[in-house]
Specification:
The protein contains 8 helices and no strands. The protein is an all-alpha fold. The protein has one domain.
């Protein structure tokens, strides 16, 4: 009778292997999710360019008004009083103490920290304490924050990586869902469906706008003629 060598793994090592398998599946799902999101963005951007080429110029007057509104709002923002609360000051100090770019010499980490500090500065200026708390929470819960060696520390890092993957997958699903609710995406679906039925919806929209512009121009001409006759 042949003796068979049986290797007994510790419960911790078995759990680590299970988590590694779970992480592998999640990472594959995450790659596909990022691809789906990038594809959705790319298709929508292509459609937006086509829409702007055909329709955008016909909304020039509306855009002019929107630019004036944006300039007015920017003026108001630049002149509003900035009075941060003590709570947001405290959270901002915690964030800066942990993630300031000067706290590392690694080029990649410095770049990551600089981006986070930019977001933190914007959140502070906007008075968005919830965003500052989210930045702080994400930084403290990252896998790299776990110190030490051995199975226990590695298991914790693995669990945090899994949580990060799940959080990002959830974010991707939410982002795609939000994109699909936009007017531009809905219009893209309508245009795509119309093309399958042999219709060019954007050309029809442009034709309708041209008629409206022509009617408005005729009305403007009549008004000018009436004023000139007086």
């Amino acid at each position: 009778m042949n003796d068979r060598l049986v290797i007994s793994l510790s419960p911790e090592l078995e759990e680590l292997q299970r988590k590694a398998e779970e992480l592998s599946v999640l990472e594959a799902d995450l790659v596909q999710g990022e691809l789906d999101l990038a594809t959705t963005h790319g298709q929508l951007q292509n459609f937006e360019r086509e829409y702007q080429q055909i329709i955008g110029t016909r909304y020039a007057e509306l855009e002019r008004i929107e630019i004036q509104i944006a300039e007015y709002m920017a003026y108001l923002e630049s002149n509003r009083d900035f009075k941060p609360s003590e709570d947001i000051k405290q959270i901002y100090r915690q964030v800066a103490k942990l993630i300031h770019p000067d706290l590392t010499t690694d080029p990649h980490q410095k770049s990551v920290r600089q981006q986070l500090m930019t977001e933190a500065n914007q959140a502070y200026e906007d008075g968005n304490i919830d965003r500052l708390r989210e930045i702080l929470r994400s930084w403290e819960s990252r896998p790299e924050a776990v110190e030490g060696e051995g199975i226990g520390a590695e298991l914790i890092r693995m669990i945090r990586k899994i949580a990060q993957c799940r959080e990002r997958l959830s974010g991707i699903c939410q982002e795609i869902a939000e994109i699909e609710q936009t007017e531009l995406y809905q219009l893209q679906v309508e245009v795509t469906t119309a093309k399958k039925n042999g219709k060019d919806l954007l050309v029809e929209m442009a034709r309708d706008l041209d008629e409206q512009i022509g009617q408005a121009q005729e009305e403007l001409t009549k008004i000018k003629e009436e004023l000139g006759a007086r």
